[in-house]
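EI: anyone free to look at a 355-residue chain?
SC: sure, send it
EI:
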Amino acid sequence: MAALIAVPAFAEDPAPPVEGVDATAPEKAEGPPECLPPATPVITLGFGSRYKEDSKNRSDFDEASDAEVTAALKPIDEFINDLARQTDYLLLADQSPNPSLTDLEDRLAAANCVIDRIHDWAAADALSELKSQGANLSAPSRVAGIAFAYAAVRDRVAADPRIATIDTWLKARAAQSMTFFDTEAPPRASQNNLRAWAGLAVTRVGLTLQDPALIDWGAASAELVACTAAPDGSLPNEMWRGKLALHYQLHAVGPLVVTAALLHEARPGLFDICDRAIPRIVDFTVAALADPTSVETITGKPQSVGGPDDPPRDFELAWTEAYLRFNPDPAVAALAAPAEKLGNSKLGGDQRLLW
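SC: here you go
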């Protein structure tokens, strides 16, 4: 039976300060993680805002509503995290030379586990009934995580009858996001970090299915968000968030960078658009994480992240691997160097294995 989430009032932006899940890979590919039992597909999703009704810039949390949103999204995030553990194992195992027959069988078992779990959700048409604005804004980053896991295993199970069902379902989820952000999303959300996450999800699905229309929309979304950047690299649609401005600037960087990296062949030049907007955004963000004074000057508020006392968490820096592959930068490398694991399930798991 599919999970059904109650539907309170609409929300403009449901992303919390703690957004993203560390996907932990095994240190060495000794064997695949246990394939967990099927997770109940979440078909219908709807919830209200995390923020107080009188919080005009969506920076003051309503404790009860925040907990409700987190609870609604938890089964989806746990599902994505479980998928990432399997694909992290596969990516690590692929680095081992001269695999034995047992090694190859283990890899196939892990790939089949991922296909089975995603097929369960595809066959149930999961995430097809998004009943609130908040649900429509939150779903794309979760679809991205599923799409990354699928991309890691699809070619390992060629001619499998489950593939057609999953392909159809992911294309429908991509189309759902495109329609919402093109026609229904609030003005800021249509050009902020949430649009960037939608662009990443659609891009990953488009590349996997070799669908030019999806790829074009993903590239256009990254360009749309990146080109809103001010000359200093700050994103106006994140700076309005008061004490959460730098958090949301950082939350936008991940999907922008990874989308540009994914599309370096199919739609090259995204790192160069609008006077190298994405590198300017990255430069501003990295400098502000070291010293948030620049953001505090814009917002007039102390920030929730940044400076020696509030450094970003490792999963928030997972994007740095994709960035450094195409944009060598000592400051970015130094920021990421202390991270024990650059894992984020919504970006496909352990980025050091991916990039």
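EI: Residues 3-170+185-354 form a domain with the Glycosyltransferase fold (CATH 1.50.10.100).
SC: 👍
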